[in-house]
Design goal:
The protein has 314 residues and is α/β, with parallel strands linked by helices. It has helices spanning 13-24, 59-66, 82-87, 89-109, 143-162, 187-196, 216-228, 247-258, 283-289, 297-311, and strands at 4-8, 29-33, 49-53, 70-75, 114-120, 166-171, 174-175, 201-204, 210-211, 214-215, 235-239, 245-246, 264-267. The protein has ten helices and 13 strands.
Length: 314
């Protein structure tokens, strides 16, 4: 296989959607995933996809992946996310920092064409205004937010020092088909899971907290554009909807979609969770990457519900 795209974490929630999208474009793909949270069956069976069960922190697995003719890297694999990093800070550091560093070293060694790093809105911490890429005033509250920013710094260093073409994408509150509910997963699949069982939705906080929810198809489309557009080299982009939505409104929408009459209950906000508002400034991604918000929250929630009904056993 030649000119393959290595997608780390390619069987995860974002990764599986991205891999299936790339396969539909007839791009050769190598997936490296340890299946700690992803599912192999979420990736289609295209002959253009090579799947390797392995870990980005292990040289033997990286050697195997890069031996498949890799020319580009989209690095999605991560120890996800905030609560998981509080509970397991060493694992978070190993995967998100050491794993990223190793991938960068192999990328330079194999002279790949471009390295896309999937970062997160969590690097901003607690800020009240629309979040812009040029901010330097970070307020971190979890190991995850620190390790993901450290990954960004290594990516920037390798771009500047080794001349590696790179692009950093800060994803905001991604949701959609492909993400299963779980202890360390995001609010939308977990809300749906409870609603589908007829249970009340639990909001940790007042419900007035806001997030910038972004449908996964919009994320994958812009990620592919970042890979292809040379002008994006060396840049950082927010990839988001640019819309601020209250958590209580998301809960109400999900109860309505699922016809769940059990309502909403409130519990104490988690000790580390001090972010009351989050909204991205997406002008840069629109102008340079052609980023588009093609799926509204209402439409995205309906699509997510249909997928979860087909893939989750209650």
């Amino acid at each position: 296989m030649k000119n393959a795209i290595l997608v780390t974490g390619g069987s995860g929630a974002i990764g599986s959607n991205l891999v299936n999208h790339l396969a539909g474009l007839n791009r050769p793909i190598v997936v490296l995933d340890n299946l700690s949270s992803g599912r192999r069956e979420h990736i289609n069976t295209s002959k253009r996809i090579i799947f390797i069960k392995g870990d980005i922190t292990k040289d033997s697995d990286l050697k195997k992946a890069f031996s498949c003719g890799v020319s580009f890297v989209i690095h999605l694999a991560a120890h996800f996310a905030n609560q998981n990093s509080i509970d397991h800070p060493e694992d978070d550091l190993s995967t998100n920092v050491l794993g990223t560093l190793k991938l960068l070293e192999y990328s330079v060694r194999h002279r790949i064409g471009k390295f896309i790093y999937a970062s997160t809105s969590c690097v901003y911490g607690d800020r009240k205004t629309a979040l812009q890429e040029n901010t330097l005033d970070f307020k971190h509250d979890t190991p995850y937010s620190i390790s993901k920013l450290a990954g960004e710094k290594y990516v920037t260093l390798f771009g500047n020092y080794y001349g590696l073409a790179t692009c950093i994408l800060r994803y905001f509150n991604v949701y959609g088909p492909g993400e299963l509910p779980g202890a360390y997963r995001n609010v939308i699949p977990n809300f749906f899971h409870k609603a589908m069982k007829g249970e009340p939705l639990i909001i940790t906080g007042t419900g007035q907290e806001t997030r910038d929810f972004t449908y996964v198809d919009d994320i994958t489309a812009t990620t592919i554009k970042a890979l292809e557009i040379e002008r994006s080299n060396g840049m950082i982009f927010n990839v988001a909807s640019g819309v601020e939505t209250r958590i209580i409104d998301v809960a109400r929408k999900i109860n309505r979609i699922t016809k769940n009459n059990s309502g909403i209950v409130f519990s104490k906000r988690r000790d580390w969770d001090n972010i009351l508002r989050r909204r991205a400034d997406i002008k840069k991604a629109k102008n340079i990457l052609g980023h588009k918000v093609s799926v509204s929250l209402d439409e995205g929630l309906e699509k997510t519900y249909r997928w979860l009904k087909a893939h989750v056993k209650l």
